Amino acid sequence: MRDIKNRMLGKGSMEFGTPVRIACSASIVGKKEGEGPLGQLFDQVGQEDMFGAKTWEEAESTLQKEAVQLCLDKSGVKIEDIRYLFAGDLLGQSIASSFGLAQYETPLFGLYGACSTSGLSITLGSITIAAGLADKVMCVTSSHFASAEKEFRYPLEYGNQRPLSASWTVTGGGAFLLSDQPEQKDRAQIAGVTPGKIVDYGLKDSMNMGACMAPAACDTICRHFQDFKRKPEDYDKIVTGDLGYVGQQALFDLLSQKGIDISDRHMDCGIEMFDQNTQDTHAGGSGCGCAATVLSAYLLKQLEEGNWKRILFLPTGALLSKVSFNEGQTVPGIAHGVVIEAIS
Fold first, then answer.
1. What pTM was computed for the model?
2. Is residue 89 within 8 Å of residue 97, measured between CB atoms?
3. Angstrom distance (rounded) from CA 42 to CA 25
4. What is the spatial distance between Cα 142 and Cα 108, in angstroms, rounded to a whole number?
5. C-beta pairs of 305-308 under 8 Å, 24+ apart in sequence
6. Sign of the four-CA dihedral 4, 7, 139, 312
């Protein structure tokens, strides 16, 4: 029986009495992502972005299905040992998850947190384990450049010009096996979470997601420091999901107004994913798969190798749809904070 000594901190954070283990993870990306700075670290790189499917949406479902299977294969765990799946994506009614994961016949919590979905799934999965209500869960998410363009902007055939503030949706899927039992091969541990709040600064530019999401990242960081009674120096890295270059500067400006400076330890998955000088991705990477694949391939590796001891993983999401955008609504943001530590 799990020793439950969890604590509620402040008005919205949770600290786990016994950290939840990240037993294993897997990352699969597209060709463009494989050509970026982190290309050699991903578990699999597709040579063509259809991944053997007939449509972009089916291709994204394939990303989730194969990410889960790869994670199972790497860990030696069977799908029958997984109590729950926590999954989501960017498509309407989360069809990448429902069609991609149906074959596993495992209880599913379908989630939508936009590009923050990796943080949302890991938060809910770790809470479930910390509460003693599951022993093993799988958290998975994905995004695909072409399916996201069709869902939120314009199909690729339209050939529209992208402004410099626009980000490039990452084609990728990431899966994380969380467990309540420590094993020698575990990658890292989750010590606590600060779930995000919806923050809306009234911005309406869907081609500038970074600016739309930065206020939510600022809010979660501030609440996290207050609830945990910590400061930036308590983390080796504070990692946002996909603010990109525009959103990063907006975050720094917003935090400076509150007397907080994280510039010497901030990292953004969207910035790390692509080479801005050679890959023509403008503001950087975005999408559910952005933070998920960078966490699996790069961030956990740094914790495993002892380069870092503790990070604040903060995937960011813009909560819009093509319906809300066409009706003139604003683009609210959300950011979920997860404290991930090296295993000592």
1. 0.95
2. yes
3. 11
4. 15
5. 306/342, 307/236, 308/236, 308/237, 308/342
6. negative
Cβ contact 102:209 at 8 Å: no
CA distances from 56 to 156, 157, 211, 305, 340 (A): 11, 13, 28, 36, 33
Q: Which DSSP category does 295 fall into?
A: I
Per-residue model confidence (pLDDT) at position 2: 59
Backbone angles phi, psi at 310, to 5 degrees: -150, 135
Q: Which amino acid is at 184?
A: Q
Per-residue confidence (pLDDT) for residue 1, from 0 to 100: 47
Name the nearest CA neighbour of 27 among 185, 142, 146: 142
Gap between the Cα atoms of 283 and 290, Å rounded:
13
Place of tokens 């009614």: 93
Structure tokens at 189: 């541990």
Q: Which domains does the chain have, with CATH numbers?
A: 21-179 (3.40.47.40), 188-341 (3.40.47.40)
What is the pLDDT at residue 72?
A: 98
- State both tokens at 2: 């799990």
Please list, in sequence order, all residues whose beta carbon lies within 8 angstroms of the beta carbon of residue 195, skipping any fewer than 6 positions away: 12, 13, 123, 336, 337
Give the pLDDT confidence score for residue 17 in this predicted structure. Answer: 94
As to burial, measured by CB atoms within 10 angstroms (0-12 exposed, 13-18 middle, 19+ buried), residue 171 is: buried
Pairwise CA distance, residues 3 & 61, whole Å: 37
pLDDT along the chain (344 residues), means of 10: 79 96 98 95 94 92 97 97 96 92 96 96 98 97 86 64 72 97 95 97 84 96 98 98 94 98 97 88 86 98 98 95 85 97 93
